[in-house]
Task: structure prediction
Amino acid sequence: MILRSLAVSAFLLGSALAADPIFSGQQPGEKTTPFKIVEILGANAGKEREVIADNGGGATALVFMHGIERSMMPLLRVVDEYGALRKDSLKTEIIFLNADRLEGEQRAKNASGSLKLQSRVGLSLDGAEGPGNYGLNKECLMTIIVAKDNTVTANFALAQPGIADAPKVLEALAKVSGDANPPTLEQLNERQMARNGGGPRDGGGMRRGEGMAPPARPPVDLNQFDLNTEEGLRGAVKALIGEVQSLRTELATRPPQRPGPRPEPQPARAPIPGAVPSDPKLEGLVRRFIRPTNDDAAVDAVLAEVRDYIKDNADLKQQAIDGWTRVLHFENYGTEYARKTGKAFLEELKK
Result:
């Protein structure tokens, strides 16, 4: 019983830490639409260009940056390094978003120079919101849209991007670019080290011995154990104990941190109202409703389908209220007509 409780507690802890999904940008299966940027680096710096047409439907990674923080640098470095490695089969675009063009260009130039980015770097001409048809979410510091043949194949809406997001992002980039044997995080960081000079780097792209942790280890995968058997439960607990011991060893051997400036406190983010529906069909209907390519008839058809689906089911009705409350909270979700009819639909549900 104790073993089962430990294993179940471990799974519940993982579930509790999982973030409630939010939307940002087109979803898989939707089309990418044209938008312009101004080039930041290279011979064409200061010139405008149209990104989607320029890449001609090839495998593309669109990395939209709503902000820039130290915690997101390791992931950005990894994506940039992989894009440079696969430049013949993958077009990597890093696109900064800023309300002020002059300020945005300077910030993008400073960040690009500091990180020594190799990808094409630009500033969106559509301000802080980014291209209107993309429905980018300001709550996400980074939104990565992977596409081929002008169709989205993967979407990563990252409110707090970090190196932990790298494996899934690299998997999507490898798949869209036809890379059957993609490099590991360690190999990508070693490539960056060789390019920039200096000692070996850790999973975050920092030189080891500079007050940073050793290379990131993959977390224990408890799915490999059968928790319905005593032997499986014992194996799971043993693996968890080993994980704790390894973490203690890492902390004990970690070099002392170099003193640095105290980071400015970040204001607490207000909770996002509503919730993503737990019912799969209803969640899919919400996603269809906010597509930026919908015409008025498509919006009406989605709402009609929702009404028919939830009928008098109190649980589905509440999920619909939560879902539409959430998407209408973000001003750039859906078309103008969708937002207008969505508000009326939400009032209808609440009566």
